Amino acid sequence: MNGNSLFDNWFVCNYQRLRNVFGRYLYEDAFHDAYLEMKKAVLLLEIPIERFEPYFFGVYKKCKSRCIYRDSRYCFPDNEHFFLLMTEEEAPSAEMLAASDRLVYDILLFVKNRYPQTDYELFRLKEYEAKCSYRNLSDYAGISASAIHRRINGITDSIRSHKGFSKRYAHVNIQ
Question: 149 pLDDT exceeds 60?
């Protein structure tokens, strides 16, 4: 049996134990890179089987530091970074924000005055505040999800067919 197949058999038999040795500090990419480097080393250097484990730990340590160095070369900015890079023209104006806020307020007032309180609350939770799923709304209200879907779609259709809201919406979107 050549050294390569001996190493493969040793690695298969000890795979889980080696992973457990590193525990939660295991660096997955480095672990598999170490396997590949160790496989090359076994072919070239003819390492005896009793030296596989300590040699593997050394190779893993080297691969882990290489992977950490490679990952540290990149910067992953958060979403706030891109928000700060936005130009002034992309941000909506105060007038447009005020117009859209008034439109939202008027739509919610329309729904509150025209529909029962439970329908108003379900619509507000689905469309404006929490963006809840129909399943969550069903759990909240004790009504089937399909019934909630029908109620909210009925409200949405009445808002879309309301001429005053559709004109104002078009005006807010144009600006």
Answer: yes
Q: Which residue has the higher pLDDT, 166 or 91?
A: 166
The tokens for 107 are 């739509």
* pLDDT higher than 80, residue 62: yes
| DSSP reduced 3-state for 48 | coil
Of the pLDDT bands very low, low, confident and very high (cuts 50, 70, 90), residue 1 is low
Q: Are 145 and 134 in contact (CB under 8 A)?
A: yes
Which residue is it, tokens 């050549």?
2
Q: What is the DSSP string of 99-168?
A: HHHHHHHHHHHHHHHHS-HHHHHHHHHHHTSS---HHHHHHHHTS-HHHHHHHHHHHHHHHHH-HHHHHH
Which is nearest to 161 in space by CA: 107, 118, 80, 81?
A: 107
Contacts within 8 Å (CB) and 24+ apart, 150-154: 151/119, 151/122, 151/123, 152/119, 152/122, 152/123, 152/126, 152/127
Opening angle at CA 137, ends 133 and 141, nearest 5: 175
Place 48 in a pLDDT band, splitting at 50, 70 and 90. Answer: confident
- Cβ(123)–Cβ(152) under 8 Å? yes
Backbone angles phi, psi at 131, to 5 degrees: 55, 45
